[in-house]
UniProtKB/TrEMBL annotation:
InterPro entries: ComplexI_Subunit1, NADH_UbQ_OxRdtase_su1/FPO, NADH_UbQ_OxRdtase_su1_CS
Protein name: NADH dehydrogenase
PROSITE patterns documented for this protein: COMPLEX1_ND1_2
Domain of life according to the entry: Archaea
Pfam families (alphabetical): NADHdh
Cellular localization per UniProt: Membrane
Amino acid sequence: MNTILDILSFLFNSIVFPGLLFVSVVGMLYVGIDRKVTGHLQHRIGPPIWQEFLDFGKLMTKEDITPSAAIGPVFTAAPLFALGSLAAVMLLLPVASAQPALRLTADLIVIIYLLNIPAICMILGGYSSGSSFAIAGAGRYIVQLLGYEFVFILSIAAIAVKVGTLNLTDIVSYQAKNGWLLLDWKLLPAIVATLIAAQGKLLRTPFDIPEAETEIVAGPLTEYSGPKLAIWRISYNAETIAVAALLVSLFLGGPTAYTIGNVRIPAVVDFLIKTFLIVMLTTVVRNIVARVRIDQALKFYWTFGILLAAISLILVMVVPQW
C-alpha cells in the first residue's frame, strides 16, 4: 500500500504540483505579465497577460511540420526532453515549503545538470533542423553556454562554500536561522554574477544572441512550428520559473510561511511573490539595455562575471569568520 501511495504521490508531484502543470501555468502567466510590462515600458499597450495561453492553444491546433532536411527523431525529441528536464528540476526545488518534493544528496549538482538540458536540446534541435539560420543560432548558443555557465557554477560554489553544503534544503534552512544570503556582503559579488548569468541562461536581452530576430529569424527554433513550437514555448516559460526558483532558494531564503495578524500566508504564496520579483527584474534589464555581440558576451562573462564570482569565493574562503 505504501508503495502504491508513493508512486501516486510521485506522479502527482511530477505532473501536477510542483511539476509540469504548475510550472507551465505559472510560467505562461509570468511571461504574459512580462510581455505586458515590456509593452508599457516601450510606450505600447502590449498584449493581454493571458496572451501566452492563447498562443499555446493556437500553436497546438496548427499543422506540425518537420522539414525534409531535418533529422526527424532528434528534431522531434528535443523539445520533449527539454520540457521533461524542467518538470524534473521542479521536484528538487522548494516550492510549498523548505522541503522539495524530491530530496537528493548534493542536489545542487543535479539541478545545475538538469537546467543545462534545455540549452543542449535547443542546440541539437537547431542543428538537426537543417536550416542555416537555426545552425547559426545553435552555434551562438554553444559559445554563450560556455560563457555564462561557468560563471553560474562558480557563483553557486561560493554560496555552497559559505554554507558548507551542496544540498539546497540545507541552504534554505541555514537562511532560516541566519538570515538571507542576499544580505551577506561577502556574497554580493557572486549574487550579481548569478543574476547576470541567469539573464544569459534565459536568453534575455542583452544576451538573446542565439535567437536574435533581426539577424537570424528565431535562431535554433526557426524551423519549428505547431505543437513542437508550443512545447518549446512552454519549456522556455518553465525554465523562467525554474531559474527564478533556484535563485530564491539560494539567496532569498526559499519559500517561507508568514502570519500577518491572524492570517497565515502559505509558503507557496511567498514563493510566487519572490519568483515574480526576480522575473520582473530580468524584464527591466532586458528593456533598458541593447543586445551585445556574441564575442562581447563571451568576453563579458569570462572577465567581469568570473571576477565577481571569484571575489566572493575567495572572501568566503579567506574570511569565513566575518
